[in-house]
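Retro notes
What went well: the complex prediction finally ran end to end.
Inputs used:
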Amino acid sequence: MLVLEDLYLGYGPVDVIKGISLEVTPGEVVCILGGNGSGKSTILKAVAGFLTPQSGEVRYEGRVVNDVPAHRRWHEGLVYIPQDRRLFGRKTVYENLELGCLSRGEPRAQVKGRIEEMLEHFPVLREKSRLKALTLSGGEQQTLALARALMGSPRLILLDEPSAGLAPVWIERLFEVMQRVIAELALTVIIVEQNIHVGLDFAERGFVIQNGVIALEESSATLRGSEDLIRSYLGG
Ligand SMILES: Nc1ncnc2c1ncn2[C@@H]1O[C@H](COP(=O)(O)OP(=O)(O)OP(=O)(O)O)[C@@H](O)[C@H]1O
Ligand SMILES: [Mg+2]
């Protein structure tokens, strides 16, 4: 589904990611763990097409996409939910959902049907569908960001720290509904987390990034037994 091969990423002369390789197979949910500024978002941006690699390859569904712009990747089912969610705060929940797929040129009736599906999946959004997005709580906004991303019919979804800034009760609620929807739609997921427990409970496999390389790559079950080690990587 996705292959990163000897990828070097950075901004100007500064290397952030120094040669990482990894593969994600269809239907897999994998987690990237790493400390502040370790380059987690940088990796997702390169996969989504917002950052051109300095060298190495990003292959999506068997094709090198290094030079494919972000909007084309989105059309091909590669959807990124950034850390800051990027909702349209002054538009309503409903309008935000509409904007999740209007640019694909789907007929209006079909869009309406898809929104209805999302409101079925996420009842909290139905209650608030006529409210402006900026009036929602952090957890509701993250739910909306997920629902809007799903409007684009993704095959591979990139989640950048969905738990950040949320109260524990909201994290639990959000991840429960995400798990259900992801299984139902058979999505492939790369999630970035700083919260080790949240990340490993959600994903089947994890990668730990430190100093621009993959320091550890194991099943979540195995990584759960190495928490102190992971913590030392995340802190260092
Ligand atoms: N647009 C940019 N221009 C220059 N440097 C950047 C830019 N974006 C990120 N960086 C730098 O690249 C490094 C990695 O940033 P990145 O955002 O990928 O880290 P992260 O692991 O996602 O961190 P966080 O957990 O804080 O979100 C940091 O040192 C950051 O300062
Ligand atoms: Mg980040």
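What we learned: Residues 87-153 form one domain.
What to try next: split runs per interface for comparison.
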